[in-house]
Amino acid sequence: xxxLIVTYNYLSGYxxxxxxxxxxxxxxxALYDDVTLLYPARFGGEPISDIDSRIRxxxxxxxxxxxxxxxxxxxxGIPHRFEKPFRELxxxxxxxxxxxxxxxxxxxxxxxxxxxxxxxxxQHDNFEEEYTRDNTAPWMRPFLLPPVIRxxxxxxxxxxxxxxxxxADADILLRRYGKxxxxxxxxxYTFEYRPLPDRVPNAVLRPVFVITGNLxxxxxxxxxxxWLKEYYPLLMREVPDxxxxxxxxxxxxxxxxxxxxxxxxxxxTPPDMSVVLDRARYYICPxxxxxxVKLRVMDGLRTGMPALVHRVSARGYESLDGLSVFTYDSxxxxxxxxWSMMTSPETAEHRQxxxxxxxxxxxxxxxxxxxxxxx
Length: 375
Description:
Order of helices and strands: EHEEHHEHEHHEHEEHHEHEHEHEEHHH
CATH topology of the largest domain: Rossmann fold
Number of helices: 15
Number of strands: 13
Oligomer: single chain
């Protein structure tokens, strides 16, 4: 089977989108011998890493002016750069399966794939309407949300298989757009993008907590500042000797000053996040908005750390609830989750083994194999 994958993510990046995209791209490459990948690049010859070497990669650089991009989005409703190269590729070559790694990059292309006699898979990294709303400045939402909604609706209804990453996303996509679906919805979940090396679990004994992520992202900023105001004092009240580390890129001067006033350590753009994680005993994800899976939670879980996670960010980690993931959505449930986590009898080795069984690359490939066997 010849497979064409179109990804919306910059694969040279280090954020959750890039990590997740690599996992699913590599999983398809593990199932099929002939895989072509269309991926975006900011400039020609941009290197990508951690992608299966058997994949034929075709980078797509967008040389359009800002005015042309605005016309393409707001007049034609096309939020991506793939229309022309995709059309040219489909005219030259025959594919049996086309995978769109985000509903946005499928805009205007699904019907063309079906006319060419190929099947369509659309991967939904999140409920795109929710993600766009929570990661866009308020003044931009009226312009961006309508094309996002139209695209997501069409993708759900026209794809042969829709792949959702969490039960919550699958449920809302079906409720919003499921009427008239031609295909089916499947749960893909999330997993590592390569086999995990053996790793000794963290052995830190002091109550050191760590928060990681892109500190400049809208959903992170809108969650972290309120968390520091409301929940950090609760943490220090319950665990007076607790230490907190915040690590990530693009912190911004306002966050720097806030953390400095609180006496919280900031590790700005660490070259190796594992070095920071090795200093901690507990992981925290305070993000309370945006859909999909928060891959940053995996940073803590793969080390054997338990994670204190807002209920919104616990989507996709339901299998580890009460074992490695402890959720909250209010001050009272936060305090309860802190003590449940800190008094849990589970060992780091047990938590790490459970994480591997659910989120290892090999597990993800096998799950995808079962889904694709029914196409």
